[in-house]
Specification:
transferase, Thymidylate Synthase, Chain A, 11 helices, Thymidylate_synthase, alpha+beta, 2 domains
């Protein structure tokens, strides 16, 4: 059994047993603990959960999107990735230009009312089509503001300049691997209240080089344990693999530190189902040779020997 996956399953058990009931922004309700850390030895294999199917291609295209500094969902839609749609869709249906049926509180209503869900899906399909085919519409409603890609690659300074944090960290790892300053932050206090579709949940990460290995620690202020955290584990593990490869290092550990770690009330039964399953062997990651991660395409990254249990569906809290 993979000790890496067990770290995640132990988090699930802890929150079910010790979690405090809390209200939240989405009005769904959660069980929550504050402060938890998981460690994943990347030598064991790639830490993609096996107790349920996790769509690796979505993780890859989202990470490439971040790395490229993109903040518009058009790139994701071109790669059949719909994980950020709801936040862009919300921006559109709350605008003065939207003239369709009432979409207020669409996330909850779609889960509770089948007739509304059918209406919502039709509006979402129209929205996605417009993003893909209409440049002006995509520029206005597909952009999510200063989210991860923008902060990683184009952090705005008080002088009106920008800082490419990701490129700078990679250069620093190559030139001064023992530095304690290999950090990237996505939490920009100026942008959080007004210029982001969703304030960053994974707020800061740091790289560490020892014995020819590159490790990464992520601080995540808020973690949706069932839907979000499995993506976050795999995404930052993948980023660690990619940067290690560019810098001529081996992947070391991924350390995941969580602030508010929570299970949404409408995910509890899904978590219980997952906990009844036995973990399987972790898959292996294959990356095509490249000069720099900024030239990578999603097709350059693949997974081998991934044999998970079936997917477990759950609604997204928006």
């Amino acid at each position: 059994m993979s000790m890496s996956e067990q770290a995640y399953l132990d988090l699930c058990k802890r929150v079910l047993e010790e979690g405090t009931k809390k209200e939240d922004r989405t009005k769904t309700g959660t069980l929550s603990v504050f402060g938890h850390q998981m460690r994943f030895d990347l030598a064991e294999g790639f830490p993609l959960l096996t107790t349920k199917f996790v769509p690796f291609r979505l993780i890859v295209s989202e990470l490439i999107w971040f790395i490229q500094g993109d903040t518009n969902i058009r790139y994701l839609l071109k790669h059949n990735n719909n994980i950020w749609n709801e936040w862009a869709f919300k921006k559109w249906v709350e605008s003065d230009e939207y003239t369709g049926p009432d979409m207020d509180n669409f996330g909850h209503r779609a889960n509770e009312d089948p007739s509304f869900k059918e209406l919502y899906l039709k509006e979402m399909d129209k929205f996605k089509k417009s993003i893909l085919e209409d440049d002006e519409f995509a520029a206005k409603y597909g952009d999510l503001g200063s989210v991860y890609g923008s902060q990683w690659r184009k952090w705005r300074t008080s002088k009106g300049e920008t800082i490419d944090q990701l490129k700078g960290v990679i250069q620093a790892i190559k030139q001064n691997p023992d530095s304690r300053r290999h950090l990237i932050t996505a939490w920009n206090p100026e942008d959080v209240p007004s210029n982001m579709a969703l304030p960053p949940c994974h707020t800061m990460f740091q790289f560490y080089v020892a014995d020819g290995k590159l490790s990464c620690q992520l601080y995540q202020r808020s973690g949706d344990i069932f839907l979000g955290v499995p993506f976050n584990i795999a995404s930052y593990a993948l980023l660690t693999y990619l940067i290690a490869k560019e810098c001529g290092l081996k992947p070391g550990e991924f350390i995941h530190t969580l602030g508010d770690a929570h299970i949404y009330s409408n995910h509890i039964e899904q978590i219980k189902t997952q906990l009844k399953r036995e973990p399987r062997n972790l898959p292996n990651l294959h990356i095509q040779d490249f000069q720099t991660i900024f030239d990578l395409e999603a097709e350059d990254i693949s997974l081998e020997n991934y044999d998970p249990h079936p997917a477990i569906k759950a609604p997204v809290a928006v």
